[in-house]
Please model this.
Amino acid sequence: MTAPSRQPCPQLVHTAAELRGLARSGGGRAVVMTMGALHEGHATLMRAARERVGPQGQVVVTVFVNPLQFGAGEDLDRYPRTLDADVVLAGAAGADAVFAPSADEVYPGGEPQVRIIAGPMGAVLEGASRPGHFDGVLTVVAKLLHLTGPDVALFGEKDAQQLAVITRMADDLNFPVEIVGVPTVREADGLALSSRNRYLSTPERRTALALSAALFAARDRTAAQEALRERAGSAGQRAQRRSEALAALGEDRAAADAHAVAQAAAEAARGPSVACAAARAVLADAAVLDPPLAVDYVALVDPSDFTEVADGYEGEAVLALAATVGTTRLIDNIRLTFGGQQPCPAAPEGTPRPTAPPSPPIPQGPLGAPR
Model:
């Protein structure tokens, strides 16, 4: 059976009634929630959505700048709104429909009196810096899930805490939808794609590269430590005895290597603090740049509940950062594994893998969505 042809531009609808009128096929429906100002990160979500539901399925993209998730003094009024361009990008990425409601359509009675509360997971890190933010996120995500009725909803891993609280809401409240995370998309120089990147001047963007550089430094330090730990685990106490024997014979270089392996066994329990220290060192250098980077938080957390992990932790953890350069606040994160083989960071097809410079390099030249 040949796949039905899709119209070159997605259908643009603005009301819940129009959304209900969209014909549904038997292939299932996927939704990608955004605040607009779409970029390649959003397009990656849409392509992943298309892959999940197949040619017979339906991909719906929501474009809504949700006032509930913006605090006082944040950039609600100046948040970029580019609906015409968003529709074109969505169509090129495989979307069938774009749902772009007004605030009155989503909140017909004004701000809702009944809201979803994010709980403890929503009160730390981003939640501590932006009180009430995740309550607003979950409230509008719940409404949009009800309105769109998807089988699967896809969100960017760049907003790791947001993805975690949405996943927990869907589980705790028995939403009949699968929540899927899609890896962060980065520029060639490592900067995570975000709608807010367009606020950055050239010098500010150069400084902002410290976020990804800090994450890559932590990743590389963790990988090196885990590799030594693995060697130490196989060598056991023999490594220390070999180090001492080689040193006695004057084999300094070999002795140093053996000593590093031996030390790894003792240092392995400090993996989380070592990773954070590597990241903080890069961020400290960026704090004295012009313009400077002002760090909000650096935290290594358990991805299941976003509580900070202690030294001796084993398993997967999320290293999350937030910082401001100029007037633009940016977030980023990376997943690290302690006590096991380090996975290679996933990257969407066609995205070059950046390397971690010792200091920020000079570039050459949503709700629910990557920011």
